[in-house]
Write a structure and sequence with these properties.
The protein is of the alpha+beta class and 365 residues long. It folds into two domains: 214 residues, Thrombin, subunit H (Beta Barrel), CATH 2.40.10.120; 97 residues, Roll (Pdz3 Domain). Helices cover 22% and strands 33% of the residues. The protein has six helices and 20 strands. Strands 1-2-3-6-5-4 form a six-stranded antiparallel β-barrel. Strands 7-8-9-12-11-10 form a six-stranded antiparallel barrel. Strands 14, 15, 16, 17, 18 and 19 form a six-stranded antiparallel sheet that branches. The longest helix has 30 residues.
């Protein structure tokens, strides 16, 4: 009896082992799909998918790749000699808007359209304070429609945002996300700040610079200009120049090639210095000779003793806690106007009127 039980157990084990060993072959024989599988009905696209598709189909033809290369040796093959970014059609005359840091007047510039056509271009005007530049095509082409213009003053955190560009040179890429924050401040290369910058988590990578940020209606709400990323790739924090600024600056660049830089002729101390000294305001580090600030009697830091001169604490009655507070007010006034500054010197408070000039012009004194 015991031998019979052992035999049965061995038989069961053998069957199980055979099943394990031959299962792949059985599955292949019984269940392998040797013919194309039946396609399952998909159903309707979701509303957000239809929105994304509509935006891309409408706007993408108007988004271009901007390539700038040093004219000294355009065939060097050095990838560092080539800058690639994004731009978009602004008007029916063929003006292209992009970032100022993508191009400069010393480079050979070409624009590649979505159709694949490549057209030489030239810089019409640059506004480094806003990281904006306008290009003009060197020959006539059949242009796609300009992108519809929206507003940035009524944007809300949480609403959808769409970015189209050429990240890493990969043309016509769409990314989606939301507006993560508003009224950010973005430093520029010349020490000023762009105010009311839009922050988005729509993926923005190198190569997206100068491309459009869009709302769910497909309207331009900003120009993508920078990312915050320790690695250099998208980290979920991107920034765009608000369209209300773009719509003011670009027409000036088209008309004159220049956007005034309102100022009074002072050099402000670094904000870190003010924070370290516990000073709540803008420390005047130096005053330009012959400038409105000098004529108004403003005084900078004494180079011999290091003693602080004037600290600007108000502009037209509004608090000035950092340089951007002052520059924002000067931009509202514009060259030719006058600003009333409240300054502190040696613990005494006084008011002075200072003329606002275009400090980008050499004759502005």
């Amino acid at each position: 009896m015991r031998h019979r039980l052992v035999a049965i157990l061995l038989l069961v084990l053998a069957v199980l082992l055979a099943a394990v060993l031959f299962q792949p072959y059985l599955n292949q024989w019984l269940f392998a799909a040797r013919e194309p599988r039946i396609v399952s009905p998909r159903g309707d696209l979701a509303d957000f998918e239809r929105t994304s598709i509509r935006i891309f189909e409408t706007v993408a033809p108007s988004v271009v790749q901007v390539v700038a290369q040093s004219p000294q040796n355009p065939f060097s093959g050095d990838p560092n000699a080539v800058q690639s970014g994004t731009g978009f059609v602004w008007d029916e005359a063929g003006h292209i808007v992009t970032n100022d840091h993508v191009v400069n007047r010393e480079q050979a510039i070409a624009v590649r359209f979505a159709s694949g056509e490549i057209v030489p271009a030239e810089v019409v005007g640059e506004a480094p304070n806003y990281d904006l530049a306008v290009l003009r095509l060197r020959r006539t082409v059949s242009l796609p429609a300009p992108i519809a213009i929206g507003r940035s003053s009524n944007l809300q955190v949480g609403q959808a945002a769409f970015a189209i560009g050429n990240p890493f040179g990969l043309e016509q890429s769409l990314t989606t996300g939301i507006i993560s924050a508003l009224k950010r401040r973005l430093p520029t290369s010349d020490g000023r700040e762009i105010a009311d910058v839009i922050q988005t988590d729509a993926a923005i990578n190198p190569g997206n610079s100068g491309g459009p940020l869009l709302d769910s209606a497909g309207r331009l709400i900003g120009v993508n200009t920078a990312i915050f990323s320790p690695s250099g790739a998208n980290a979920g924090i991107g920034f765009a120049v608000p369209v209300d600024v773009v719509n003011r600056v670009v027409p000036q660049l088209i008309r004159t090639g220049h956007v005034p830089t309102p100022g009074i002729g002072i050099l402000a101390a670094n904000e870190a210095v003010s924070a370290r000294l516990g000073v709540n305001g803008v420390i005047v580090a130096a005053v330009a000779p012959g400038s409105p600030a000098e004529r108004a009697g403003l005084s900078g830091i004494d180079r011999a003793t290091g003693e602080i001169g004037d600290v600007i604490v108000e502009a037209d009655g509004q608090p000035v806690r950092r340089l951007s507070d002052l520059t924002d007010r000067l931009e509202q006034i514009g060259p030719g106007g006058t600003v009333t500054l409240t300054v502190m010197r040696n613990g005494e408070r006084r008011s002075v009127q200072v003329s606002v000039v275009d400090i980008a012009q050499p004759q502005a004194r």
